[in-house]
Amino acid sequence: MRNRASVVVAALLLAVVACSDDPGGDAAPSIGPGADSPQAAVQQLLTLLESGDFPAAASLAMPDQAALASLAEGTTVAEVANALRDGDGVVAANFWSGFAQSISGVLDTGLTVTGATGVEVEGETFNVVDLETSTGGQRQLVTREADGHRIDLFATFGPTLAGRLYSPVERLLTSPVEDAVLVLAEMRKQVPSLYMAAQAPDLTPGAIQEVLRLIELISRVS
Question: How far apart are CA 28 and CA 176, in angstroms?
């Protein structure tokens, strides 16, 4: 994502929280279908973030990715596994809540969706959605289709997640428990998204290496 570092780093520090933190009350958010197009997914997300409707925004994250990303914040394997089994709407809602806080200034001044470009990576089709700030700055979010178009958290935020996920994933590889096996199997599915993340043109060589290092670790999962 071009010029995304200041947005992404702040967002990930705030966004991924434990599964038990529910911003929308006692009931878990219901995960519905995604949007009709990549541009619509991003526009809908921005509208929901501006209004503070984070439970509704949960449907605009790829299923299970928020739960997996929460490993970077120290969420236990059991909590992640439960979210994978029962749905990670609560975690996704919290992710978007933190993201909205981190870019509140940009949201206040406005973001405009200007276009989308399809990219094929590892047999998957991703869409890079371009946004422009009111001051002419450029941002991008990456979407993928899964019962509608949704934001791919690993393809968008992978460079920030990679270094913080390495140790938790490494520990999982030495654990024979059922929860660890489930989490690793779902993490293995994120490899195409991580390869997409590694292609962001603004990444430093060190950041690219962090992503590739995580891919190599995850790829050990059979």
Answer: 30
Q: For residue range 56-111, list pLDDT tens digits in order.
A: 999 999 999 999 999 999 999 999 999 999 999 999 999 999 988 888 777 767 78
**Residue 12 has what pLDDT?**
43
Q: What is the 3-state secondary structure (H, E, C) of the chain?
A: CCCCHHHHHHHHHHHCCCCCCCCCCCCCCCCCCCECCHHHHHHHHHHHHHHCCHHHHHHHECCCHHHHHHHHHCCCHHHHHHHHHHCCHHHHHHHHHHHHHHCHHHHHHCEEEEEEEEEEECCEEEEEEEEEECCCCEEEEEEEECCCEEECHHHHHHHHHHHHHHHHHHHHCCCCCHHHHHHHHHHHCCHHHHHHHCCCCCCCHHHHHHHHHHHHHHCCCC
What are the residues whose beta carbons fall under 8 Å from the beta carbon of 68, sequence distance 6 or more? Answer: 80, 84, 154, 183, 186, 187, 190
- Answer whether residue 10 shows pLDDT above 70: no
- If we measure between CA atoms, which residue out of 108, 115, 154, 149 comes closest to residue 132? 115
Rounded Cα distance between 87 and 185, Å, is: 16
pTM summary value: 0.86
> CA 114, CA 130: separation in Å to the nearest integer?
6
